[in-house]
């Protein structure tokens, strides 16, 4: 099925812009393919080190260089719910590899930190940078040149983007991503949010708050709201890195294990040693990237991906811009209602038809490219299915039903929840920014109010507790939160107090060079402002009382000050010495000095 003319036009524009970078990338990839990943190029000493702990059978297979060896990159740790299930995956993958006539080895581990644990803490300032560390860590694991293919075990916020950057940097190898799935449903997300706001108002104590949080985050798997972690899983499926239907199957189930083994066998089937060679760097192209952006809009996905998708694309020589993302948002309707864009969680989304139904609707509207390569070996149409457990314990797939299992959660292309994806780009005399409006009521899409300036989220919280923010409309400007300043932490601790004030009937918004991520909710928030304050960006010139206008309908963000006066103002500075040390922050000084702008992926690689 051909894509819509507007989708084709945007894709063609990306292709043309990327041509010199993409051609150079593919040339490097082809040269790596030509050199091959054959253990025969290793010296006997090299090879002996590489398979010293293998079984005699696996040593014999690897020594003969006639069977494929699968490299496993894992983000397993047993502290974080989303990554704990990966503990048992290597054994499943090794078993599947032997059944398929191959070998599998854990090539390396990568760090996996949780923004939920570090919110409001010093460690949060390492979060964004961990993406590039993960990419480098995976690169070290694969650098041994022992592998014909790779599988990546990762789920959450920075982990998957980092692993994708690594997979595309080693783009001469096939790459299959294997998820762990979401935890089962616990306390409803809207109830969790309600308790958080009551705690912010002092109406419940810490014991009640901890009980609520523990009932929400209660077992293995990803958090069930539609934040960056679950946006990652959507992306991996719609971009063709997952096996069809695998994204949202709960951990610890027979189907989850069957999908894991199937993915491992598929990774071995698509090596250069067979007839279906599918190097990741060729498989992922401009059409795949556009499909990912479309999926992000159709599901009201994480704002973090306005940076991650740009960085991921650039790892394959593809230059995606915020303008591309914004233009696609205007075309793609919102087809899901998953918290914070609705009351349902990702398990309800999966039960309503999940990725299979969503992709089918997007194909019907011509909003995604079907003629893409995937790890499954077919185009995107092959993903319009429901994965089930077969009679033999393997994976069986059935056509997705024509009707949504719950039209309040997942709708059809002709009856969207709203006409656009709700992820908008803003521009004006404050620079460029991102806003997610899929959970913001239409009457709050335009906010014009006096600025109140803060340099930390704690300053705003303290002002709220003192009552300084009561009985007034305002736009909170929280600056010096960008990548260069302090690693661009997420500022979720601002959501409860601002939500309380908005619920009291006041016009409230947030303007910041920091992040809010996939949990961006009902309060209008212009985030990722670039240039950031630490670069002397215009946000550093705002003063208390300046009238700021945030207009998500026209895509503008302006401070309503005389242009000459505003240009003449000196940019404010901030003492950031407290952000340079402690909890590992001293190790990341080079990252803060060399990181790129948010609209260029906030990466140290480009």
Automatic annotation (TrEMBL):
Keywords: 4Fe-4S, Carbohydrate metabolism, Gluconate utilization, Iron, Iron-sulfur, Lyase, Metal-binding. It holds the Pfam family ILVD_EDD_N. GO terms for cellular component: cytosol. Its cofactor is [4Fe-4S] cluster. Transmembrane segments: none annotated. The keyword Transmembrane does not apply. Binds 1 [4Fe-4S] cluster. GO terms for molecular function: 4 iron, 4 sulfur cluster binding; metal ion binding; phosphogluconate dehydratase activity. Catalyzes the dehydration of 6-phospho-D-gluconate to 2-dehydro-3-deoxy-6-phospho-D-gluconate. NCBIfam families: edd (TIGR01196). This is Phosphogluconate dehydratase. It comes from Endobacterium cereale. The gene is edd.
